[in-house]
Structures are given as structure tokens and as C-alpha cells.
Amino acid sequence: MTFPLTWLYVPGDRPHVVAKALLCGADVVVIDLEDAVAPDRKEYARAATAELLTDPRPVPVHVRVNTLDGPWAAADLRTMAHLPGVVGLRLPKVTSPEQVVRVAEGTIPAAGTGPALYALLETALGIERAHAIASAHPALRGISLGESDLRADLGVRDDTGLDWARSRIVVAARAAGLPPPAQSVYPDIRDLDGLAASCARGRTLGFLGRTAIHPRQLPVIKRAYLPTPREIEQAETIVKAAAAQQGAQALPDGRFIDAAVVAAAQRTLSLARRL
Q1: What is the pTM assigned to this prediction?
Q2: Banded pLDDT at 83 (limits 50, 70, 90)
């Protein structure tokens, strides 16, 4: 299975920008009806997005709807859930599994149909309930952090203060059988070196890919999450050794390999095919 590495957010009330975003090389384009749209533009953003997505798009398109307990979410879900161009709905500020179940039962007409759901955990309560949310309904296909809101909720001043929450959702996603989460956005679009360093840190924590807010961030994210030539070489060695002999074994250089190591090597080679 091939997982997206780059997810580009674009404001829903700027359809000309959305059209450009669909051509910029992101694996997924996320049209935002929530934080990027002012209250007096919500209705227009919904209508413009609906008009744009009446037909399927060559690039997968997700829509981030408004906060589920707010005044716009019901209309967002009702409008977006059945559009041919929408393959995913991103649910902001999820704090309970019941919210996911209500959305799924209200918008997905039958099992296996309709857009996939993705829960954004942006509060302390959401993080505490991460696994329950991640396993709430079969229509839920992923979880991720909304770090800006979470940072404010926790009063965290240093970036490392979010590392426990980051690890928490990586573990919750895995325990629920979901793909590894994508990292939250890096807000400084000019600091590409900082973005690269942050991606490297996220990769060590178990994330896979990242959301972006500007096209210039996309190649940095992709480069950070694709394996290096050395990693590819090591993975090839492991897979070849495993194919030649069944069971756990040691390589000539002393490295011990077993089924878990082989599975990790196979994932590395799967990512390498995207180079």
C-alpha cells in the first residue's frame, strides 16, 4: 500500500488557489473550510468548494470541515459527503469516539461507501482519548495532531513539549490498525531548513509524511521522508538475506534480523519506489 507523504492545505474561499494547488504535486490537497476561512466567508467557501468538486479530480482531495459542535459543520458534512471529488473528510478538534460515530452514521450511507474520515486531535482531552477515537468506526482511516491548537490548550512554549502527544498518536494509530500519522504543519513557510530538521525529528518519532501550507514546503517534506541511498542499500541487504534463509539470523556485519526487521526493510523499499 502506498501512503501519501505530502498533504497541502488550501483555503476553501479561494477557488483559484485551490485550482493551482491541484497542479503543484501534492499527494493530497486538503481544502480548508475551518481555520483558513473567516466567519463571514464560510457559506461562500462551502459553495465554491462544492462547485469545484462536482467531478472527481486526478489528485485526491480532502475537505476539512468546521468544528463539529459549531454552527457550520452540519451543512459542511451534508454538502461534502456526497460530492464525487471528495475522497476524505477531516474532522477538526475531535474529543470523543462518539463524535466520529455520529459523523460516520450521518454521512456514510453504507459500509465501504462515501469519503473516508480523518480525526484531528487538537486538545488535551482528544489526546487522552486517542486510541478510543482511532478505533471508533471503520470509516475512520487516520488520526493526526493539530499542533497549534494543542500547544495553546496545553500552554506549551517549547516544541519538545509536544513530543509526548506526538508519540501518543503514533502509538494509538498503530494500535488501531491505522496508517502512521502525518506530521502537523510547520508554520514558517520561509524556514525550509527548520522544516527539514523538524521532519527528521518527526520521522524518528514514527510519523510518515506531513501536512503543508505552501507548495514550497512539499519537496522538503518529500525528501525528508523518502529513504536515503544508505537506507535503501541496507534494506535490500536485509530482504535478500531473508529470502535466502528462513527465520531469524545475523548478517555478515553482525546485525541481527528477524520478521520485524524484514517488515521495516520492505516498507523502506516500498517508499524508495517513489524516488
Answers
A1: 0.90
A2: very high
